[in-house]
Amino acid sequence: MTITTTNDQSTSTLMTTEVLIIGAGPAGSACAISLQKAGVDCIVADKAAFPRFKLCGGLITQKGQDCLREVLGNDAYEQCMEVCVRGREQYFALWDECKRIVRVKLDNNIVLIDRPTMDNWLVQHYKSLGGRIMEGNGVKSIDFAAHVAVLESGEEVSYKKLVAADGVHSPVAHMLADADKRYKLNKKGCFCLEVFVDEKDCDIEDVNIHFNLVPNFYTWAFKKGNQVAIGLGKLTTDKIDIKEVLIDYMKRMGVRQGAEQASAPIRGAVIPSEVRQAEWKSADVLFAGDAGGFVELLTYEGIYYAIRSGSYAAQSIISGTSYTQLVRPMHRKMQYGSFFQKFIYWKPFLNIMCKYGSTHGAFIAKFYADNIDNIPSKPLWKQIAIVLMKTVRVAVKRK
Asked: Fewer CB atoms near the end CB (10 Å): N or C, the chain?
């Protein structure tokens, strides 16, 4: 519903909706599609016009694919993947700097998608369902007490529920922190750099993960369509020049065009590295995707967590179930990932993996399948015990 009011100085447009969603990435789109299919009126607003560029390696895990299928339904999911998939790899390799530790064959292919294409497809699908979206129209201000948001165009939207799916630097979160001092902003994050080079400039196979080139993080290189994605990340607390490391990494990978070339521009992005407040003020504001800090803290996977948190936000609104309760299993998984992140980068373990990993490919493949590609079926303490026992057994056996 739209109401136009006029006074002597200006004309303003007030739109009303049950749910206002800020951000049309995978989290916002998953929420919007779920609400639209359930017959709940919603409006999506995004500062960008689609298609738009989005920095992302584009690896979508099996759990991410399953979640996307759940949101879209079988037919729409198959259409989406047909358009978005750029590559499928059956092998991944772990490296100690640029010395290969192990090459592992997986039961399920690693699926690589083009994020800008997927994001645009989801937006267009939402539109095809009759959804309302305001592209190129970010949020300017929000009156959280009155439940009214003012967009950059000057249009006003009155809402009952607000879903913030507006990224790691969430404008909604900053506005909420200004309006309510009880809401605390989270400031921890990781900074990533990535470059896409033409396949003819880099001979590569498999999905490659390199350790010991940057502290507390990894570097990656894999072919995706007719390009090769090369990137790395660092914790914001680590004082290193990752652009310099990336350029050196590209040289080690045999890239024939330098990173400074216009054909291979380096792009950067920040991703969250800690859990954030999922809902605020009696669930009037729900945070999804990067805005809610939803990311896998072992691999920094974000696509699954964006889609799942967006669908949970919709489920919470539709059923009245607590959003905090719905996302609690994801928070546990993130805490689990945080533990293994610290464990894997613990120098004694990293040394053992680099030294003996070549003889334990089956174990590494199972760890990937059970703990990264899918949602772990065992409780955290059992998963930790299994990995610890295996690590100790390898160390003792090799002495």
From this structure: C
